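Title: [Solved] Small ribosomal subunit biogenesis GTPase RsgA 3D structure

Original question kept below for reference.
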Amino acid sequence: MTINLVNYGLNANFEQAGKTAKGLALARVTEQHHNLYRIVTTQGERQATVAGKFAHENTDPTSFPAVGDWALVTLSADIAVIHQVLPRQSVLAREAVGDRKAGQVIAANVDTIFICMSLNADFNVRRMERYLTMAWDSQAMPVIVLTKADLCDDLPAKLAALSEVSMGVDVIVCSAKTGAGYDKVVAQVPAGRTVAFVGSSGVGKSTLINRLMGQTVLATKTIRADDDKGRHATTFRQLLVLPTGGIVIDTPGMRELQLYTGDLERTFADIATLATQCKFRNCTHTSEPGCAVQAAIQSGTLTTERFESYQKLQREMAYDGLNARQREQAKIDRMFGSKNEMKQVVRQAKAKNNRK
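Solution (posted by the thread starter after getting help):
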C-alpha cells in the first residue's frame, strides 16, 4: 500500500527537495529511540539509522535527526539509512541533560507548540516564561493549554497571574474529567498541521492526545497526590496522525528546562518596550537615572518577580555556546568583574579571617 506523505504534513518545499534527490527516498521521522529511528515513506513505516558518513560529518547533536524531521534515505528490506536531514522550518530545542553545554532537539517542523501545565501544584508562572522563551525561538506558534481545570478552585486568580506572561498567546483551559475546552484544543490541530506537546510529567499531555485520537494509544499517569510530582508516561518522542488529519508529537515530561536557545524579546515584550524608553541606550536597569524599567517597578506596573526572572534568563542565555571554562569565566565576570578582582576579594576575605 502506498502512503500519501501529505497526510504526514508534507508541503511543497519538502516535496521538491525529495524530487531532486536522485536515488534517495523522502521520509519523515516519526519516532526516536537513542540512535535508532522510525520513519515513514511512501512505502510505509520502518526502522532507520544514520549513515556512517553522516555521523562522521555531524558532531553537533542538534544536527542529528529528530521527530518531525524530513530526511532523505535509502531503503532496504531490513533497515533504512538516513543520509541527509532537510533544512528545518522550525525547531524546538533545549539544553541537553548533563554538564556539557549541548543542544537537544525536542521536535522539528512543527507549526504549533502546546505548552501544557496543570492547574494544581504544577502551576508555575516562572516556568511558563521559560517554555515561552524556548517556544518563541522555535519559529512555531505557542499555545498555552491549562489542564485539570476541575481540580482548580481559584481559576480567575491563576489566569490573572498568567496574563502578565502570556501576551500574544492563546490560552486554553480544559478538563479531561468534564470535557470542557476540548473543542478549542481540536480547533488548534487542523488537517496537515503539526502540533508538539510539551510540559512537565503528569500534566495530561498523553490524555489530551488519546482524546484527540479517539482511542487510548498512549499510556497515561497522574501526578502523585503525596508530593504533586509527575510520573513519566511517555518515554520517547513520537509522531501520530489524528483521525481528523492533524499531526501531533508527544514528548516526555520535562521536570527541569534549561534553555539552549530562546527569544527573550518576545517573551518579555513588556520589558523590551520599557527598555526603549530608558534615558541611556546601554541602561542595565539597576541604578541609572531615567530608567523606565525601574520606574515601572516602582509604580507597580511591572512586578519585581518578572524582572528578576528576565534577568535570570538573560544571564542563562548569555552562556549559550560557551564551553565550561568560558562559562565559568562569564560567571566570574558577572560576580566580580574579572578574575583578578575575584582573587583580590578572596585575599581580602583571608586577611580578615587571619585578623580574627
